[in-house]
Design goal:
globular, alpha/beta, single chain, eight-stranded parallel sheet, two-stranded parallel sheet, about 15% strand, about 350 residues, 13 helices, TIM Barrel
Length: about 350
């Protein structure tokens, strides 16, 4: 009996290892709604997190219109710690500095200038310059890697442009497929001038069906595909499929995939750059309790893993890494794999069972 039990345990361990090895480590990703320190990255490394989606804020990095005043230090730290822990960074480049929105574009944007995408010729030129300089720093052969030769060389290979541009929350004054297509074209040109092999990924799009502040993600994608020449400016589509149950996730992915097929773009990659549930109970359909959060995490990753080849899924990124007392939405506060203070939840154990980490 002892021999049988030991053989069974070995078989289970082997099945977990085989499952984790079936996809690249970069498939399993996280995004953070809180600041990160070395302890967070150490835990990510041990858990075999493969991709970290992180904001590269134009306003924070380029706060004035002065030459050579880039404040790279914050993002340098993220890239360095990720490299030490064998984690790929997927930056989403987002936001307009006040000097662009108010100055170059003459927006009346108050204290919320960051979500007004650049539109004038001068603003778009500034945007291209910033994006190109970011790739020149962190991409293949970038200056960051030259300055840090002792780090494991893990240059950024994929760049996400903006975030939820189909929603007024993140794209003001209102969602505009034409305006975003211009933003995307400028970014694509800048990225590929520095790294021809880099991947350009659309900003994440939540379906948000019925919202007065947004265009449903699949409908927005259809309108975006109608913009002349847009397909040559990106390599990956990025849904943010949020729903109370897995069935809703599958339905949203089907809608996005239908638009890709309709546009004869079925070979484009899919990056699921946000997915998640809260561990609280009540108040929002996405709050599923601690066990429910873990259960849905496992279901979602297994679904995408099973359909990875058909959908060309590159990465599935869990929102979020850790809970936060202040958050962007009602359920987001408890969306973490950890409680504050890095106290693990059942969802972290579910995540590491998939990755083969600890």
């Amino acid at each position: 009996m002892l021999a049988t039990l030991l053989a069974l345990a070995a078989a289970i361990a082997l099945s977990h290892a085989t499952s984790a090895a079936a996809v690249p480590r970069s498939f399993y990703g996280v995004a953070s709604q809180t600041g990160l320190d070395a302890g967070d990255f150490d835990r990510m490394g041990k858990g075999k997190v493969g991709t970290l989606r992180a904001i590269l804020s134009w306003p924070a990095t380029d706060p004035t219109n002065a030459d050579g005043d880039y404040a790279w230090a914050g993002f340098d730290g993220i890239v360095a710690e990720a490299a030490r822990n064998r984690i790929r960074v997927l930056p989403f480049i987002f936001g307009s500095p006040t000097w662009v929105a108010r100055g170059l574009d003459r927006r009346s944007c108050g204290a919320n200038c960051g979500v007004f995408a650049p539109r004038s010729r001068a603003a778009r030129k500034a945007w291209r310059t910033f994006v190109g300089d970011a790739v020149a720093r962190y991409g293949r052969g970038g200056e960051f890697w030259a300055e840090n030769p002792t780090l494991p060389q893990r240059p950024i290979r994929a760049w996400q442009i903006w975030n939820e541009q189909n929603s007024r929350t993140f794209y003001r004054p209102k969602p505009s497929p034409r305006g975003y297509a211009n933003l995307l074209a400028d970014a694509s040109k800048a990225i590929r001038s520095e790294d021809r092999r880099a991947d350009v990924v659309l900003g994440g799009m939540a379906e948000l069906a019925g919202s007065r502040k947004a265009v449903a993600g699949s409908k927005y994608l259809r309108k975006l595909y109608r913009q002349r020449g847009v397909k040559r400016d990106f390599d990956g589509v990025a849904p943010h499929p949020y729903g109370a149950r897995l069935k809703s996730i599958e339905e949203q992915i089907d809608l996005i995939r239908e638009e890709m097929v309709r546009a004869r773009d079925r070979r484009a990659d899919m990056w699921v750059t946000e997915i998640g549930w809260g561990s609280d109970r009540g108040g929002n359909p996405l709050n599923r309790g601690r066990r429910g959060q873990a259960k849905r995490l496992a279901q979602a990753y297994r679904y995408f893993r099973s359909n990875r080849g058909q959908l060309n899924v590159q990465s599935v990124i869990w929102f979020s890494w850790m809970d936060s007392e202040t958050s962007i939405c009602s359920w987001c506060a408890s969306s973490g794999l950890f409680e504050t203070g890095l106290k693990p939840k059942p969802s972290w154990r579910a995540f590491t069972r998939l990755t083969g980490g600890r």
